[in-house]
Design brief:
Blueprint (H helix, E strand, L loop, with lengths): L2 H25 L20 E3 L10 H8 L12 E3 L15 H11 L14 E4 L9 E4 L4 E7 L2 E6 L2 E2 L7 E10 L7 H6 L18 E5 L5 E3 L10 E3 L3 E2 L2 H8 L7 E4 L1
Parallel strand pairs: 4-13, 7-11, 10-12
Antiparallel strand pairs: 1-2, 3-6, 4-5, 5-6, 8-9, 8-13, 9-10
């Protein structure tokens, strides 16, 4: 190699080395301060991918390989590195669930026997503007109330359970018999629908006729008590009028055989 050629190569290497040293100094220069202005929205706590790209000032090729040990890619792209934002929710408890929202599914699955009695169906004295005289029982099937007319524009009102769809009826009857803790013998029509029912049950707390029964004319219908008070205010029976045991005991003591019963 001639002397001129050697001097040319040495000069070129010296020229390239100076920018490389300057690049190294710039690489460790402190970063610009991160200024947040008043109207600038606060950063959101999300995971962000930061792509760091560096381009060589050496022009690539064989010369860059001599100084860096690896050639640069043609477009200067490097694999992105991921930096996770601070975990803003670490150590913070989530807000408690709305108690009302928690209560609703629990109530929906609750045993109906534990449901509180609706105060609308409590026995109470109310205004009565109908035409029936004192001592008459008026059964308001759609609204599930039974009225014992007192006279002077008043009536005792009780909550009741009435027939299921297809088992409701209307008409005028009279009380033909009264029994305390009556036995129950399901009629053949009911046994045909419910063959699992007992053929006969003696009176008592477990008897579905409850504490008292008042029989209506020659029909199979009765006004009777119930050991299922949570069914008051519903369409539940096969046509009988059911009451809470404490209410049917009260009504039983206020009416006599022969009393008129109007079912609407």
């Amino acid at each position: 190699m001639s002397l001129k050629t050697s001097l040319a190569l040495l000069g070129g290497a010296t020229f390239l080395l100076a920018p490389h040293q300057a690049f190294a100094i710039d690489a460790v220069a402190p970063a610009e301060p991160n200024v947040i202005y008043a109207n600038q929205p606060a950063p959101q706590p999300v995971r962000t991918a930061y792509v760091q790209q560096q381009r060589s000032n050496m022009g690539g090729g064989f010369i860059e390989f001599l100084f860096s040990g690896a050639p640069s890619s043609q477009d200067g792209y490097q694999q992105p590195t991921y930096q996770q934002q601070p975990d803003y929710y670490r150590g913070r408890a989530l807000p408690p669930m709305d108690p009302q929202a928690m209560r609703q599914p629990q109530e929906a699955m609750a045993d109906p026997q534990q449901r509180p009695f609706d105060p609308r169906y409590e026995k109470q004295m109310v205004e009565y503007t109908g035409k029936e005289g004192a001592g008459t029982i008026v059964v308001d099937t759609p609204n599930k109330f039974l009225y014992l007319v007192q006279g002077d524009g008043k009536a005792l009102r009780y909550g009741i359970g009435v027939g299921r769809p297809g088992f409701t009826w209307s008409g005028v009857k009279s009380i033909t018999a009264k029994k305390e803790w009556p036995d129950w013998t399901p009629p053949p029509e009911m046994l045909a629908r419910r063959p699992d029912l007992p053929r006969h049950m003696v009176g008592g707390p477990e008897n579905p006729l409850g504490a008292r029964a008042m029989y209506l004319g020659s029909s199979l219908y009765r006004i009777h008590g119930s050991n299922e008070p949570w069914t008051i205010g519903t369409n539940v029976s096969s046509g009988c009028i059911r009451m809470r045991n404490e209410d049917v005991i009260d009504l039983y003591g206020r009416v006599n055989v022969g009393a008129k019963v109007v079912v609407m």
